[in-house]
């Protein structure tokens, strides 16, 4: 593995872990709950309508709200880092093919 690939994988994995909570907050999954008039509020309304009035435990909306309120669990952080690292590797590989 060359230096560019190592840098890209490390940067992408770290960036994904740092930016995941920022992204959750930006769409409305906050520590104080789901922000009014946000993307998260729209998701919650759709989920509640689909399930007959409430958001089901374990649903996407429930999991994202939990992460927005309490932060990412260790296992979730590992998955986010892994996905970020994979994106970094793909980016470095594509860059190597172009250059």
TrEMBL record:
It is a multi-pass membrane protein. One of its GO terms (cellular component) is mitochondrial membrane. GO terms for biological process: intrinsic apoptotic signaling pathway; release of cytochrome c from mitochondria. Transmembrane segments: none annotated. Keywords: Membrane, Transmembrane, Transmembrane helix. It is found in: Membrane. Pfam families: Ifi-6-16. Its main location: membrane. It comes from the Eukaryota. InterPro entries: IFI6/IFI27-like (IPR009311), IFI6/IFI27-like_sf (IPR038213). PANTHER family: INTERFERON ALPHA-INDUCIBLE PROTEIN 27 (PTHR16932), INTERFERON, ALPHA-INDUCIBLE PROTEIN 27-LIKE 2 (PTHR16932:SF18). Belongs to the IFI6/IFI27 family. This is Interferon alpha-inducible protein 27-like protein 2A. It comes from Salvelinus namaycush (Lake trout).
């Amino acid at each position: 593995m060359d230096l560019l690939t190592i840098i890209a994988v490390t940067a992408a994995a770290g960036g994904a872990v740092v930016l995941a909570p920022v992204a959750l907050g930006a769409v409305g999954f906050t520590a104080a709950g789901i922000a009014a008039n946000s993307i998260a509020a729209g998701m919650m309304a759709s989920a509640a309508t689909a399930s007959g009035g409430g958001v089901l435990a374990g649903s996407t909306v429930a999991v994202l709200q939990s992460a927005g309120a309490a932060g990412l669990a260790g296992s979730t952080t590992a998955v986010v880092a892994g996905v970020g690292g994979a994106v970094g590797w793909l980016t470095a590989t594509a860059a190597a093919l172009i250059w």
